[in-house]
């Protein structure tokens, strides 16, 4: 589990006491940005976190949303820019409330830019003036509802009508300005706050897509993501190159303006409908959402389709984070047993869940990362993995409930050395992370 996730769990544990057995595996780096959307007609924010979606009102209808780390604590929180008069108001929490920082900057019609423009670890608000195709960068925040002075840097970049976005495109710790030509899908940016031609340019997406940037895979470099209002789908690209999306997320509403960032610990809003991306079909398959056990979904053992992105699920005794019974975050196929006593099952980014547990392979056939059924998919006996990336983790299971008592034995491999594991006939399941590579049957 990376430092971001550990920090999140630490806050929850300090506030509410010890949680049950929590398991996580990630092949990504330590910081992965999340996506969100803002309905500008209502000032209603939707932020998508590890455990669900948080919603709150902030700003007035028509305000332009931005996200930034205004207090330099590592968490990005809302800001709004009023294009009619250049009024900026920023909040230091992802919740409803008044602005903590308020000031004026820019001219009517300017587009706000939020980012760490000098690499000091703190975000500020700058502007892009579409009428001049010019960026005005300033490295401090205003205060006391006063105005800001002259920009630290100003330069021309782009064509009138292009939409600006901000990112650390080369991983040097300094965020710079990129531009998106919505009519053609052209994405281009510079890696310094200087005038000149683009350092990188490529086509990504379709006309009408709305673009943001973020670090989607934890490699320390920001790359583009598109929100397509026509089908309420996000398309994330892990590199600043032309090509198809590396990750898709079906979530959103056509009116949304997209935002992205590191949101920190988010407590999901109870009973929100925005987490649902697929609906119950036939009573035994379902997708992302907040499902009432016994009403929306039946208790039982379910397996998800191979996730296209990071999958997080939680079994809950009630409608809050403190009621979590068990939780997992992973990038491989999972199996979970939902018990009759559970109140809610909350999956996010997991694809389709089904109670069809027909074996996916022969018991002695080799396999990779995922959760597998012992007997029908994994033959009892000795198994060995091939050398793989550091971070390999495996677990023998007595049940798919993923509570502390369901874990018979587990192991991790710090380096790339292969290991051997004996799977017993009494085991119910065997889990291996993607980093373990391929497991091969050695015999009884």
What order do the strands of the largest sheet run in, or round the barrel if closed? 1-26-25-28-23
Outline: elongated
What's the domain count? 3
CATH architecture call of the largest domain: 7 Propeller
Mean pLDDT: 85
Explain what this protein looks like in three dimensions.
With 444 residues, this protein is mainly β. The chain folds into three domains: 1-28 and 276-355, no CATH class; 31-261, 7 Propeller (Methylamine Dehydrogenase, Chain H); 370-443, no CATH class. Helix content is 3%, strand content 38%. It contains one helix and 36 strands. A hairpin with an 8-residue loop joins β9 (111-115) and β10. Mean pLDDT is 85; it is low at 1-29 and 271-283.
Care to give the gist of this entry?
The chain is mainly β. 3% of the residues lie in helices and 38% in strands. The chain is elongated and about 75 Å long.
